[in-house]
Specification:
CATH architecture of the largest domain: 3-Layer(aba) Sandwich
Strand order of the largest sheet: 3-4-9-8-5-6-7
Radius of gyration: 21 Å
Helix content: 40-55%
Strand content: 5-15%
CATH superfamily of the largest domain: HUPs
Number of domains: 2
CATH topology of the largest domain: Rossmann fold
CATH class of the largest domain: Alpha Beta
Mean pLDDT: 92
Number of strands: 11
Bound molecules: tryptophanyl-5'AMP
């Protein structure tokens, strides 16, 4: 691979400043980067445009068919419904699986709040399905260092939130025999090989490139500029010698929402120069804010979010009070003209969490025709969320300090590949 970056290749001819602009927003006003997601449109981000802008590939029917063929299982409804809509190199991962060659999964969380919200669950639910389906090792990075650098948090508080969030993540049902969860602040000092890879990445990316990819400015502190190498390092198997026995050629697949893609465009750019495989990616769209799809659900604004710790009453109040409606102004008008599922947040949330395809289709048809009112959709959503979060909270209760310690101890993992 030449020194030309993958980012430069995809944006041929653009200056660094133009790249920065085009990565951060487009002519329709869609902004997608690790710190900000917003759209001018009530239906949210135009994901087809985003695929073109980021240079990733659409997940099409052919790829879905191939996943089913290779795994012998129906695809998860997140894939079937286009919630995971974009990828990089997923075909290569499927080929590795067919050839019984090893790969691993890598995902993460930046612990900025006491609990995860529903949007954060999306990549973790997908990751669990991938772990169950492919039986491969999984590493989960908790970037407490990132949150110290970006938010008004002490190191101690960011580290405490990492441990709290790890319990929510474990409660998604990950298998301890196959999963290693680590806090950057705890782990990096214990693992020289991880730090070696960080240094290798840092020497391979210039300040100009990092400014072009992430939009950092001259007054940003150097902690921010150095951080992307920390999120890149877990993509390389040699960062985890206790799992991969020093092998540097095991590729990874990273499920995440598409806001994290800039980190991995940078990682894919440097990987071949370091003699490592490029990470493959599986991108999801954003779980929208209660107020509408123009912004994503975000932990920094509690009114936009339903947290995994919310009580049944809080869920009900938040949905009834804040969930944006696609209904008409009066019942008569609604019956005559019908509701709009494309902007109705209760319907949008049901597409993520109501697994029954036939029921979802019926709800869509009846809301669109005007037969169902918004109140019905809200009630349906409240029932689905109350049940789902009650189960999540039961599993969370069973996560003890010993369970946490087990997941967070560097150790060999047991899967079909190692
Ligand atoms: P963080 O904590 O912002 O988000 C954690 C994961 O959740 C995804 N996500 C969402 N997905 C759908 N809808 C939403 N509204 C929504 N909000 C967040 C994020 O894309 C992410 O997958 N820097 C990262 C932590 C990290 C990481 C990684 C994430 C470190 N290594 C590898 C993914 C993959 C962060 O702050 O994520």
């Amino acid at each position: 691979m030449s020194a030309t970056s993958e980012v430069n290749e995809k944006m041929s001819g653009a200056s660094l400043e133009e790249q920065k602009m085009s990565l951060n927003d487009d002519d329709a006003g869609d902004v997608v980067n690790p710190w900000n997601v917003s759209s001018q449109s009530q239906t949210g981000i135009d994901y087809n445009k985003l695929i073109k802008r980021f240079g990733s590939s659409k997940i099409d029917t052919e790829l879905l068919d191939r996943i089913e063929k290779v795994t012998g299982r129906p695809v998860h409804h997140f894939l079937r419904r286009g919630i995971f809509f974009s990828h990089r190199d997923l075909h290569s991962i499927l080929t590795m699986y067919e050839e019984k060659k090893p790969f691993f999964l890598y995902t993460g969380r930046g612990p900025s709040s006491e609990a995860l919200h529903l949007g954060h669950l999306v990549p973790f639910i997908m990751t669990k399905w991938l772990q169950d389906t492919f039986d491969v090792p999984l590493v989960i990075q908790l970037t407490d260092d990132e949150k110290f650098l970006w938010k008004d948090l002490t190191l101690e508080e960011a580290n405490r939130l990492a441990h709290e969030n790890a319990k929510d993540i474990i409660a998604c049902g990950f298998d301890p025999a196959k999963t290693f969860i680590f806090s950057d602040l705890d782990f990096i000092g214990q693992c020289p090989q991880f730090y070696h890879n960080m240094c290798r990445v840092q020497r391979s990316v210039t300040y100009n490139q990092i400014k072009g990819i992430f939009g950092f400015g001259d007054s940003d502190h150097i902690g921010k500029i150095a951080f992307p190498a920390v999120q890149a390092a877990p993509s390389f198997s040699s960062s985890f010698p206790f799992i991969f026995g020093g092998r540097k050629d095991v590729p990874c697949l990273i499920p995440c929402a598409i806001d994290q893609d800039p980190y991995f465009r940078m990682t894919r750019d440097v990987a071949p120069r370091l003699g490592f495989p490029k990470p493959a990616l599986l991108h999801s769209c954003f779980f929208p804010a209660l107020q509408g799809a123009a912004t994503k659900m975000s932990a920094s604004d509690p009114n936009t979010s339903i947290f995994v710790t919310d009580t049944p009453k809080q869920i009900k109040t938040k949905v009834n009070r804040h969930a944006f409606s696609g209904g008409r102004d009066t019942v008569e008008e609604h019956r005559r003209l019908g509701g709009d599922c494309a902007v109705d947040i209760s319907y949008q949330y049901l597409t993520f969490f109501l697994e029954d395809d036939a029921r979802l289709e019926q709800i869509c048809a009846d809301y669109t025709s005007g037969e169902l009112l918004t109140g019905f959709l809200k009630k349906e959503l409240i029932d689905v969320l109350q049940k789902m979060l009650a189960e999540q909270q039961e599993r969370r209760k069973a996560v003890t300090d010993d369970t946490l310690k087990l997941f967070m101890t560097p150790r060999p993992l047991t899967t079909r590949f190692c």
